[in-house]
Every structure is written in structure tokens, then in C-alpha cells.
Amino acid sequence: MAGSRRSVSSSSFNSSVPPPVDLTFTPTSQTATSQTSAPATPLGPLDLGPPGYNATIKLYERTANETTVFLGPWDVVNAESRRVIWQCSYAGEVLEHFLPSEYAADIFPYTLHSQHRRFGDPREMELYLTFREPHRVRYSTIDGLFHDEYIEVKYEFTTIDCSMQFQGDLRGKDLVDWYDVDVAWSDTHRRTDSYGNVRGLGTIQRMKLWRDRYSNFHYLTFYANHRRRWKEYAVHDFDAEFRQRDDRHRRLQINARGARRASASESSHGHGRERRFSATSIFRPRNGGPSSTAGQPTGELRYLGIQFTRNDRAQPGSDDYRRFIDLWNYAHDLDGQSDAPPSRVSELESPVINGTSGQNHYINGVAELPSPELLPTLPTPQIFGDLVNEFVEDLQLRTLRPRELSRSLNFLEMKSIILSVNAGSSSVKVSVYSAEYGHPPVQLAEAQVSGLTAPPAVLDYTRGGEKVAKGDKLSDKTIGHKDDIGIVCHRIVHGGDYNKAQLISQDTYRVLEGLNDLAPLHNSNSLGIVQACIRDLSSARNVACFDSQFHSTIPPHIRTYPINPDIAKSNKLRKYGFHGISYSFIARASANFLGKSQDELNLIALHLGSGASACAIKGGKSWDTSMGLTPLAGLPGATRSGSVDPSLVFHYASDVGRLSPASTKELHISRAEEILNKEAGWKALTGTTNFGIIAASNDPPMKLAFDLLVDRICGFIGSYYVSLRGDVDALVFAGGIGEKSDKLRRAVLQQISCLGFALDEDANTMKLEDVVLDISGAGGKHRVLVCASDEQFEMARVCAEDEEFWQ
């Protein structure tokens, strides 16, 4: 379900939609708005550029190597890095324009005010598109990589329609119209300063009106050049009626909803004691890095004033001032017919990958997602949208809808459906349970997308323990509707100071957004899925279950870092620990298997997967764990370094303190964090994230990665053995690698045999059929277990047992 999609623009122009990227596009292809076909003759350079191209871009501008690239059809893809993929003029040429944010709403294409070309048609300024910060552009030809640098991107389009379509695809909002303005101001940024100089929010700007493709709400944007920030306001947040309208000077004022009508003097001076209204604004500083105020309101805004440019060169009927008045009334009336617009909408699109529209190919009941070279990974929020819609339709679930329950019935006595969503670093798992309050949930079906960091990604459906192909119907065909889902529980890696699951409210969501920087591989993707569920499963309660909550019992002397305590307290710098949902399940399952009370249980547990960690469990509660403030600490993973000398990264690269290009307005990632989280681990040593390949190989790099992981695991086992003073009931292997790699288990147990652990070789190679498998060898002092940890079930169980989530 992820990948790329280009929605049809419904702008005020009759824009033609370019086709998906076609790798056969050549200079002799037809125009971009018609079907392309492969050339019948060999290609050669064309003197005047290839027919049918949509735009041009210059690389190595103002150097001896300056090159003009002719760009044909494009796709905006939402893979590991959101970017535009252009098919260029010759076969085998591809240009990738990497965007600085995964959120479409954070992208602001920039066109100049018409005064910058005084002798042309003002509309033609839309042909020249740029951005206020450098973007990465990668250009490959049949001979290999030609360009991969950050540049000031400058597009020159062949038609205004193409430019509008392209801008709409970048933002997820159709460009409805644009207006040249002399100045825009507010009560907080007055039109003139005390010396009479024109100041305001922005001067000599091209203001644009957008319509969101998902909600159909309208937005105004312009660049506040005095503050070097983008401003975006929802039309819905202002009154429809204009104030201080002056047709002669082409000037008007729109009041924020709820603001008391300002007098003329108040409007001109911007001072007043009334309660003000905060309109939404999106900031992005000129250098492209996240602003310290990113994502915050503009300040308390009571009104927005606009003075439009008088342009004698405008075409008849295209007066900006009059067009704005007409379209404002239309947009405001349209927005007023719906509920308030969402503050942020994540893109959850059907897959179009290298021109392949969202159709999965099923082989023996398993759906394989396309895995093109240009799209090595698929982001979890995009995968999830289609997964839920198709999954729920396919399951044909039976339940009672909460909104249809009689008031005379006790809701706590009714059955409901719990959807359990587990977004990991390399997979997304979704399980559906039938549940009653106070009773263990019963699984109905499960879907999993795996291989996100080791393509090809595979989509797997299971019902009743059996794999099935899409379209297979249950013999017991019952109600199937999204409203049947009563609770959606989400695995959120970093929960900060939350020590129990939480209903997701606006306040909860804001707190979790603030923790994105601490779990960059997980939290932002999980919150994207939360947004999808809030939007698409409107009747369900959304519950956040935190990987860090199990570790809230770690004692102070273990969770505290030896740094300035005041700074640590104010910035909440301490060990939090993760994989807690898995460890909670392991503790319960192991206690049941061993026939002990969980309060008396002492374990050393290993959750080994693409993300790996260890945990000492004392009295059924977390005593210590390998991960710390973030999931980066501790054991190495598929792309994580694990614990290293903190100064290593400063010797590794010179720009580690700078913000990564992967940073967004909400997510601030330094190059150091990007290197250690995404460019390290066993992938850095071997070139693959697939540990099965590593374990099966004797090649020196593979063996090094294998031995390194074994060494780090044994180090934590020894440390926790001493911390628990040798009082250990069992060592437990869990997680994808812990469950499946008998070779890893054997290597670890050989190295720690001195602690009294022994391995049964026959049991070690047995397939795990039940929740827990005992692989302890004869003569061992401690048990050795393998546990099929089920985080989805654990989250559903928590929800089923908490009355708060059933009220």
C-alpha cells in the first residue's frame, strides 16, 4: 500500500495529469499527457529538447559542467525518503528530488511576485518554481550516478497546468489560485513600523490558496520574508465577512473566528486587550532546518490584513483582488459545511510503485509487495491505510456496534472487536481480537507486512492459524464493517513518563509528538498510523500502549545517568528502556510455564530482532534493561550501532552535529543520530539486515557480525546474572531472531555455560509449536526457554482488562 501516488488536481485550471513514471519514456515519446510508447529507432540528442517534456532543471549551475536535464513524467513517492522521481528524456535516466519532510503539508513550493518580471504576464511566474532551502537531487544515467548533491532546486515548467499539478502533488493540496500582494500584516505584525516603513508579516509576496485533497478544506500560504518563515492559515479559522475593505487601495482585513470586532484604530495599530484567537501556522526557516517554534501556533492572532498588488499587465478578468474576494466567499461557504479541518493529515495512499498501481500479487496465499530498486523500504503509515481497509473487509467480522447498543444494556457485558497494531522497525503487524471486558481476547485473524528493511516486503494474511489468499471467504460469513472495531491499541515505543496505557487524546498525542526525536525509527511512524485510525475508524477508541511503561519499575540507581541532576531532571534524561510490551508477555508466559507466581519470578530475557535488547526481570518486574534514554543504547541491531563510545561519532564524520536532511518540522534528527540509528548495525558490517543470511554464511564480514552480536549478548547476560545475584529462574530467548536462530542460541549458551546454563541440542532445533519451549540441557542449574512473544495479544489483553477503555 505504500509507495507513490499522484492525485488528479481539481484546480481552477484544466490541468492535465501526467502518467506514472514509465521507464520507456524517451525523447521520441508522445507528450506527457498521453500514453507513452518505446521508440522504434535508436536515440540521439535533440537540438531543441525532446518533445513532450514537462520541465527542465539545471545541475552544476554556473560551472563548466552545467547540464540541463529535460524532465518528463513524475511520481511523488512516500518511501524511506519522500521524493519526486522524474523520468528524464533518455532511456535509463532518472532524476530524484528528495523532499525535506515526509509530510506533504511541510513542503512549500515558491514562486516569485510578478514584479520580478515586469514585462511579462503575471501568470507566467508559476512556470518558475523553486524552494527556500537546498534540497538533495540525485541524477542517474545509463552510465551510472551523475549528480547527488544539495542544490537550490529551480524548475522551469513548460505549462502552468503542469506546474500547478506538480505543486499539488508535492503538498497533497490542489493549488486553486494565487495572488500577488504588496504586504500582509496582522495585529501582532503591523503593516508599518513606528517610522512609517512598510513591514507586516510579508511584503511583495505571492500568496496561494490551496484545497486539501483529503478533507477539501482550503488554506492560505505565503512566505513571511521578514521572519523567514512560511505561514499557513486555514480559511475555516476566519470569519467570512471582510473588515476594513478598501476597494480603491485594494486592501481588506479578515478577522479570526471568535475575535471581537476591532475598531479602525485597533486594526491599524494592532493593540487591544481582547482575548485573541490562535490561527494555525506552519513555519520553516530559510535554511531548511526545523524552527524552534515549528508546529506551534503563530501567536495569538486577531486578524489578517492583505493589500493586493495593482498590476496593469494582468489579463482581463484576472484581477487578483476581485478573484480573491470571489474565491474567498466560495471557499469559506464550502468549508463551513463540514467539521473543523484536521491540524495535520498524514498521507495514506494506495501504492503506485514504479508505475504499478496498488495491486498485490498473491502466490500461495502470500501477497508480495513490489520492491523496486528506487524504493528499498515502505513506510509504515502508508502501508497501514490500505491494510486496514482491505483487511477489515476481508475478515467479515461479527460484533455489536457500540453506537447501536441499547441504553438499557451494560456495555461492559458486551463483546467488541479490538484491533491491535504493532509497528516495528522492520515490520507492521495487525491482529484482530474478539474481546469481552475482563476476559482474555480471542484472536480472529492477523496480517503482517515484513521485510521493510530487507526487501522484498511480504504481506501475509492468517485466519484461524491458516494462511489464506486475499478474496478467500470465511464459511461463517458475518458482519464486516469498520465501525465494528471498538478499540484500536497501538504500540508506541517511547512513552516518556507514562507508566500505563493511555487513551489517546489531543493532549496525549502532543506529548507523544514531543518524544519523536527519542525514537526516530518508530514513534513518528506509529503516530502516522494513529492519525489514520482516528480518521478512518472514527467510532473506535484509540489506546497507546508503551514499550517503556514496563520499565517504570527500574530503581533510581540503575535508571540515573551520572550527569548534572538539574539538567537531567528538566530535560527528562534517564534510562527508559523499551520492548516492554514483549517483556511483559514473556514474564507472564514464563511464570505460567514454570508454575510460579509472577511476583516470585526472576528472568534474564532477550528480545532479539531487527531491534535487540536484554532485560533483567526481578520479582516479575523490570530491574534493568540494555536500552536507555533511546532505543539506540545496548545491543546492536539491523541498522543500530548499540552502545559505542559516545565520542566515536565525532571522529566518524565532521558534520555529525548538523541536522540530517531526514529531519522534519516535528522530528529533529542530527547526522550523529542518523548514522548510529540508520547507517550502523549489522547492515553496516555485512550490507544486509537479514540476520538469517548472516547466520548461514561463513564469509568473514558475516561471521564478524554474528560473533559481535553473540559477544554483546553474553556481556549483558553476565552483567544481569551478577545484578540478580545468581538467582535466575530462566534465560529466555524471544523476538524473531531469538525464536528462529538455533545457531545463535547455541553460540550464546556455549559461551555462558560457566554460569550454569546448558543446552539440549535436540530441543534447540525443534520448531516452536507452543508459546514456550524448554531447551534446557541436562545438568544445568537454570532453565533455558524460547518464548513466542506476542505483543499484539499483550496490548489487547491490557485493553480488555482496563475498565477505562470500555466506558
UniProtKB/TrEMBL annotation:
Keyword Kinase carried by entry: yes
GO biological process, one term: acetate metabolic process
PROSITE patterns on file: ACETATE_KINASE_1, ACETATE_KINASE_2
Pfam families: Acetate_kinase
Compositionally biased intervals (Basic and acidic residues): 268-277
Keyword Kinase: yes
Comp. bias (Low complexity): 1-16, 26-47
Cofactor dependency: Mg(2+)
Record's catalysed reaction(s): acetate + ATP = acetyl phosphate + ADP
Binding, substrate: 491
Top-level taxon of origin: Eukaryota
Binding site for Mg(2+): 422, 791
Keyword line: ATP-binding, Kinase, Magnesium, Metal-binding, Nucleotide-binding, Transferase
Involved pathway(s): Metabolic intermediate biosynthesis; acetyl-CoA biosynthesis; acetyl-CoA from acetate: step 1/2
Family per similarity comment: Belongs to the acetokinase family.
The protein's name in its UniProt record: Probable acetate kinase
Record lineage: Eukaryota, Fungi, Dikarya, Ascomycota, Pezizomycotina
